[in-house]
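Researcher: I'm preparing a figure for a lab meeting and need a structural model of a single chain. I don't have an experimental structure, so a prediction will have to do for now. The sequence is pasted below. Please return the structure as tokens so I can convert it later.
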Amino acid sequence: MEQKWYEYTSFPDNVRQIGEITGEKRIYIEDYVLTDIRRIFQEKQERAISVFLGKQGMGQAEGGLFVYGSIEVDLTEDGDLGEEQWDEIYRVIHQYFPGSKVVGWGFGVGLWNSQIDSQVRKLQEQQFGDMGQVLFLADLSEQEEKVFIYEDNAFEEMAGYFIYFAKNPYMQNYMLRDQKEESFEEGYDDEVTKSIRRAIHKKKTRQEHMQMAAWGLGAALFVLLLFAGNLLLKSMDRIRAMEEAIQTISGSYDTKTLAKQQDEASPSAVTTAPGQTPALTQTTAPDQTGTPTRTAAPTQTAGAARTAVPTQVPGAAQAAT
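Model: Understood. Here is the structure written out token by token.
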């Protein structure tokens, strides 16, 4: 029994627009389909095609063509489709896409030329005809993808189309045909979604490990910077201590040198040369009358230098003669 996922009475909400959308005709290609046909184009190029399966929209979705299935078909040696290929197409439709119709096809080429152009027109006219309404062409050398509508024996290039995202169990089961051969049932096992989730989980786990490694490296660098800063502060403290010690030693040396110079310049001892009379020294010790007295230094005799030291009598000054 066909499922409600393939009843298109309104346009999908979860879509991505490619190019410009003009006119009333709208092409919607499901994301799983686009992923699979691109794989076929890369792996086989002109040796295979993709047969599109889908339905026309109804009600509010009238004017839309929805492609939700794609069957990989190998071409014959002369690049055509034979009875054997069509038998396989209908077998796959019955097994994986019940109730679906052929609505077009896709073809990927390494380099577009006149021979490819003739092959495309031959396949369209002789194999698909009016039922092949959509043609998806990929020029791999130019990295270009184009969508055409075939009407009145002519191709009309569409300015744009939509990629829509939906729960597509038909296409998911077909993509897993090499892993698990089973037809669609109501309680199907969404293996494609599980595989995608597993891949995302692995990627997320790998990213988390990389983030943890980055955090660990950052923490190690932070600790290293703290350690280097601490060493720098200690070195600065040692330099300041050495500077203070040098200043202390230098100050002590300057003080001793200054004291020595002052001692050498003190007038406590005066030496007179031979033949000179020492100068009188005057003291101002007052006597009983309050008049200062003067004491004469002793006379120096020739031949020897004497040191004249003034003397003072405690209590009363002695008058000079």
